[in-house]
Design goal:
This protein has 203 residues and is α/β, with parallel strands linked by helices. 42% of the residues lie in helices and 19% in strands. Strands 2-1-3-4-5 form a five-stranded parallel β-sheet, with helices on both faces. It has a four-stranded antiparallel β-sheet with strand order 6-7-8-9, covered by helices on one side. Helix 2 (35-45) runs parallel beside helix 3 and helix 6 (158-170) packs across helix 8 (191-202). It is elongated and about 60 Å long.
């Protein structure tokens, strides 16, 4: 199991604190103090998770998050945003860009370690479990009925969500119309169900 954590923060005391507590919890830690270095390390080291400060020199954490989630090689890596900003709008922006969790400074090191373990347990590190499915740049959270593509949430109806889940689970296999949409009662017109949803997902 990959236990490597990438910490991205330009504050030395924060890096030291995080490194100590994560290593104590059994994780291997690597670090970067700016955005470009973080992106390169994410590609090279393939960490299990990234702890990313939103306020960085030369490149903001939101831009780093966006770059990581847009790259096929790193889009599956879960990200926990770390920042002194506590306003709701900052949390929303980070999550919309594909971040998996958000912690505000000052924070409890114990809480952060628990958050890291929780995110990894959800299987966002490229592995599938009962609650999450990944396929390329697409991550499907089955528990919350949320679909993230290229770091951005997709707006799907319940039927479109169900259809996408079945297609991703099929992993390239051809599925019949009846497999995707079980025959409706005689009084319903089947053609009204599949057509619009298929065109939206193909779109």
């Amino acid at each position: 199991m990959n236990s490597k954590i990438l910490i991205v923060d330009d504050e030395e005391d924060i890096l030291t604190l995080l490194e100590y507590n994560l290593e104590k919890a059994g994780f291997k830690v690597i670090s970067a103090d700016d955005g470009p270095e973080a992106i390169e390390l994410a590609k090279k080291e393939k960490p299990a998770l990234i702890i990313l400060d939103i306020m960085l020199p030369s490149m903001e954490g939101t831009e780093v998050c966006k770059a990581i989630k847009r790259d096929d090689a790193t889009s599956h890596i879960p990200i926990i945003m770390l920042t002194a900003k506590g306003e709701e709008v900052d949390r929303i922006v980070g999550l919309e860009l594909g971040a998996d969790d958000y912690i505000t400074k000052p924070f409890s090191p114990r809480e952060l370690v628990l958050r890291v373990k929780a995110v990894l347990k959800r299987g966002h590190g490229g592995e599938e479990n009962e609650g999450t499915i990944t396929a390329g740049n697409i991550r499907i959270d089955l528990e919350r009925s949320v679909v993230i593509s290229n770091g951005k949430p997709l707006k799907l109806t319940a039927t479109e969500f169900k259809l996408l889940v079945e297609l991703v689970k099929a992993k390239g296999k051809v599925l019949s119309r009846d497999a995707l949409f079980p025959p409706p009662p005689p009084w319903q017109n089947e053609s009204k169900s599949a057509g619009p949803c298929s065109s939206v997902l193909r779109g």
